[in-house]
Design brief:
The protein is mostly beta strands and about 110 residues long. It has 3 helices and 7 strands. Strands 1, 2, 3, 4, 5, 6 and 7 form a 7-stranded antiparallel β-sheet that branches. A hairpin with a 3-residue loop joins strand 3 and strand 4. The longest helix has 4 residues. The radius of gyration is 13 Å and the shape is globular.
């Protein structure tokens, strides 16, 4: 997820969020290929019962191009904050240019 996140960054995740993520949200999902592993990605699109994820560094990352669509059971939670010594505390909000105003009204 570089440049958004770097190795060693600490991330606080809201695991109570169960609705499908909106495009632009940073989420943690189960890695379907490795039991017990988690992936942190950005939601890129969503359908009626599925969503897709992408990496902020797609040249070097696993995302829905390889994983396919994910469902609500694959969602661990939404990233809320990140902290690193060099960048301090920061929050994750919707990436509004990618999400679009119409998506805001669809949030559950």
């Amino acid at each position: 997820m570089t440049p958004t996140l770097w190795p060693g960054d600490l991330v606080v995740v809201d695991t109570s969020a169960r609705a499908l993520p909106l495009p632009g949200e940073v989420v943690v999902v189960r890695d379907p290929g490795r039991a017990g592993h988690r992936l942190i990605k950005r939601a890129s699109s969503r359908g009626d019962h599925t969503f897709a994820v992408r990496s902020d560094n797609p040249a070097e990352a696993l995302d829905s191009r390889q994983l396919g669509s994910l469902s609500a059971v694959d969602l661990v939670g939404r990233a809320m904050w990140a902290w690193s010594p060099r960048r301090g505390l920061r929050t994750f909000g919707l990436d509004l240019p990618r999400a679009g105003a119409a998506e805001l009204g669809r949030r559950s």
